[in-house]
């Protein structure tokens, strides 16, 4: 940017023109001038100062009281000038922080990325969208050589950077579990001990863990205080809550996790989510779970990925495109019986 | 040639005397109206800090002359509680006096040179210089 | 949405009446009022949630923190008059099994 000098003559000309013509164009020029001064960080007291100088040149016989009163005005502007400088410096700092968070968010995405497994006869759709830059929700798939898959979905208390840090801890604990450990209840118990040792008193994580056995088409699952998922039975044409008892991770190292299984038939569907979906607020009202399921059902005939994407778009629009909480939704659809 | 003077700060009224002394010296030195106002505001801020937090202190004024420039040097010192975390006080968005909302970062901006020394329990010394443009 | 916390002590029992929504913004206020009470050796604390219409996971976190502190200081905490929506949160998270939650609904309403 070329250096900017406050040009008294130019200002005087503009002022003079305005005083003689009362022309809107001169006011437009004043507006442009003010934008230019802001671009160059010129402070309000300096603008008042050249105003005083210009006025004195235009009216050499300016009454001293007017001059004094303008000096008085100048004095009152000093603090505004300081506040403006502080604002500029804070804005720079904010830009810096934002770019750091953007880097962290993309690191998080790489660290926590998971590949949706390809299992014959099972159509899987998944979506996870953070309310802010960093995601406090997490989901993860693993698949073994027998086509069995493990599904984890978790939500950390709070949002943003601290939540994201806790998520990385979960991800690495999950990765370090031995391959033979597939029993959801055991998986949660082991994670609970890790979390309990490593978080502050008021922090906790909710998590659902499921193990899908390819041969038997059964899903075994357990939940650590996670928002219950739903099982849609095509035969009955209705949803069943996947009830199971278990305390959130990180509160007590003695917690036990009840394990339940469900047998999937053709077109049966498993729906897993975080409370960003169920605690969806429209205006002052919360959506009832029935309304959420209705929306999901309306999209269930679509391929699973398309369905979750469309359901997300639906809720995003309902909330005026401003998510209040991280949103994660997974759908597993059994295709061939 | 060195001209030195000082104003003691004990009551709120002393803040006004401190400003006035600074403004008069600045005028004599040939500072323009805007800089006069800035110097007075900086002094005001320093004196307010003394009045609100140290109860007793003083502002010294000095004309300094270098080969090719002249300026005014303001030194505010007190034996008050001192400042624990200097870095935090100099951060934007933090204001100790709550007065003008400018605080010490504001003084730094209003002047050309700024130095702060403080030890908890032993008081604070702030030095600020502004050169005639 | 604001949160208001009233102290309505009854003899030795310390009663906190919470009014409003407990979320990520107001939870620190609840924490500040509640946790110090649970740190008094042997204290009995009742938290009245009759006027709490919404609570998010940060609010649950405050109660978990308070519960841990009751164990450390041998004090007691009881939660009373919860709304259904709030109660559901305690049930899903399994916290109802480790916290003292009064299931009786207040009469008169």
In terms of topology, how is this protein built?
The complex is a heterotrimer of chains A (337), B (133) and C (109).
Chain A: H1 8-21, H2 24-39, H3 44-58, H4 64-111, E1 122-129, E2 137-143, E3 149-156, H5 160-175, H6 184-198, E4 205-213, E5 218-224, E6 230-233, E7 238-241, E8 260-263, E9 269-273, H7 275-278, E10 281-282, E11 285-286, H8 289-299, H9 304-318, E12 327-334
Antiparallel strand pairs in A: 1-12, 2-3, 3-4, 4-5, 5-8, 6-7, 6-9, 9-12, 10-11
Helix pairs in contact in A: 1-2, 1-3, 3-4, 5-6
Chain B: E1 4-9, H1 12-29, H2 33-54, E2 57-65, E3 70-78, H3 86-89, H4 103-110, E4 113-119, E5 123-131
Helix pairs in contact in B: 1-2, 2-4
Chain C: E1 3-7, E2 13-22, H1 27-38, E3 44-55, H2 57-73, E4 76-80, H3 84-92, E5 100-101
Parallel strand pairs in C: 2-3, 3-4, 4-5
Antiparallel strand pairs in C: 1-2
Helix pairs in contact in C: 1-2
How much is the radius of gyration of chain A in Å?
Answer: 31 Å
CATH superfamily of the largest domain in chain A: PPM-type phosphatase domain
Which two protein chains have the largest interface (Cβ within 8 Å of the partner's Cβ), and how many residues from each?
Answer: A-C, 26 and 21 residues
Helix coverage percent of chain C: 25-40%
* Proper CATH architecture of the largest domain in chain A: 4-Layer Sandwich
Largest sheet of chain C: 5 strands, mixed
Uncertain spans of chain A: none
Shape of chain C: globular
Low-confidence stretches of chain C: none
SSE order of chain A, as H and E? Answer: HHHHEEEHHEEEEEEHEEHHE
CATH class of the largest domain in chain A: Alpha Beta
CATH homology superfamily of chain C: STAS domain
CATH architecture name of chain C = 2-Layer Sandwich
Q: What percent of the residues of chain A sit in helical stretches (DSSP H or I)?
A: 40-55%
CATH class of chain C: Alpha Beta
Distance between the termini of chain A: 69 Å
Total domain modules of chain C: 1
Structural class by helix and strand composition of chain A: alpha+beta
Strand order of the largest sheet of chain A: 1-12-9-6-7
Distance between the termini of chain C: 24 Å
Q: What structural category arises from helix and sheet content of chain C?
A: alpha/beta
């Amino acid at each position: 940017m070329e250096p900017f000098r406050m040009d008294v003559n130019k200002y005087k000309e503009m002022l003079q023109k305005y005083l003689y013509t009362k022309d809107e164009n001169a006011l437009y020029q004043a507006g442009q001038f003010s934008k230019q001064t802001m671009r160059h960080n010129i402070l309000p007291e300096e603008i008042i100062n050249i105003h005083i100088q210009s006025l004195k040149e235009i009216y050499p016989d300016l009454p001293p009281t007017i001059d004094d009163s303008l000096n008085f005005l100048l004095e009152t502007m000093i603090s505004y000038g300081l506040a403006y400088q502080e604002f500029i410096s804070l804005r720079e700092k904010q830009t810096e922080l934002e770019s750091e968070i953007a880097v962290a968010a993309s690191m998080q995405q790489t660290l926590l990325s998971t590949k949706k497994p390809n299992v014959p006869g099972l159509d899987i759709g998944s979506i996870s969208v953070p309310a802010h830059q960093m995601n406090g929700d997490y989901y993860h798939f693993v698949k073994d050589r027998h086509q069995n898959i493990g599904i984890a979905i978790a939500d950390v208390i709070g949002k943003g950077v601290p939540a994201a840090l806790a998520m990385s801890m979960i991800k690495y604990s999950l990765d370090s579990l031995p391959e033979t450990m597939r029993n959801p209840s055991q998986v949660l118990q082991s994670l609970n001990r890790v979390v309990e040792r490593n978080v502050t008193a008021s922090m906790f994580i909710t998590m659902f863990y499921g193990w899908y056995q390819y041969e038997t088409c059964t899903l075994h699952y357990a939940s650590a205080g996670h928002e219950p998922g739903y099982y849609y039975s095509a035969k009955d044409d209705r949803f069943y809550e996947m009830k199971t008892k278990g305390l959130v991770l990180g509160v007590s190292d003695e917690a036990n996790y009840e394990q339940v299984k469900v047998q999937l038939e053709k077109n049966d569907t498993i729906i897993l989510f975080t409370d960003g979906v169920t605690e969806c607020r429209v205006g002052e009202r919360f959506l009832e779970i029935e309304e959420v399921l209705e929306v999901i059902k309306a999209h269930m005939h679509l391929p699973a990925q398309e369905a979750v994407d469309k359901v997300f778009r639906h809720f995003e629009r309902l909330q005026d495109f401003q998510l209040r909480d991280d949103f994660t939704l997974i759908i597993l659809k059994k295709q061939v019986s | 040639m060195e001209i030195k003077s000082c104003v003691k700060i004990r009551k709120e009224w002393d803040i006004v005397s401190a400003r006035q002394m600074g403004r008069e010296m600045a005028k004599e030195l040939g500072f323009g109206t805007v800089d006069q106002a800035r110097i007075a505001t900086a002094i005001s801020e320093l004196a307010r800090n003394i009045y609100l937090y140290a109860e007793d202190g003083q502002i010294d004024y000095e004309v300094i002359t270098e080969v090719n420039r002249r300026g005014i040097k303001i030194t505010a010192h007190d034996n008050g509680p001192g400042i624990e975390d200097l870095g935090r006080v100099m951060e934007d968005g933090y204001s100790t006096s709550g007065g003008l909302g400018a605080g010490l970062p504001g003084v730094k901006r209003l002047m050309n040179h700024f130095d702060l020394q403080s030890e908890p329990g032993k008081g604070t010394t702030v030095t600020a210089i502004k050169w005639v443009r | 949405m604001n949160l208001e916390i009233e102290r309505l002590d009854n003899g030795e029992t310390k009663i906190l009446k919470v009014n409003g929504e407990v979320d990520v913004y107001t939870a620190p206020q609840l924490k500040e009022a509640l946790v110090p009470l649970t740190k008094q050796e042997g204290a009995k604390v009742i938290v009245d949630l009759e006027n709490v219409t919404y609570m998010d996971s940060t609010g649950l976190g405050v109660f978990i923190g308070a519960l841990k502190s009751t164990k450390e200081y041998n004090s007691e905490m009881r939660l009373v008059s919860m709304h259904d929506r709030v109660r559901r949160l305690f049930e899903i998270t399994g916290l109802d099994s480790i916290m003292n939650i009064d299931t009786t609904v207040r009469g008169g309403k």
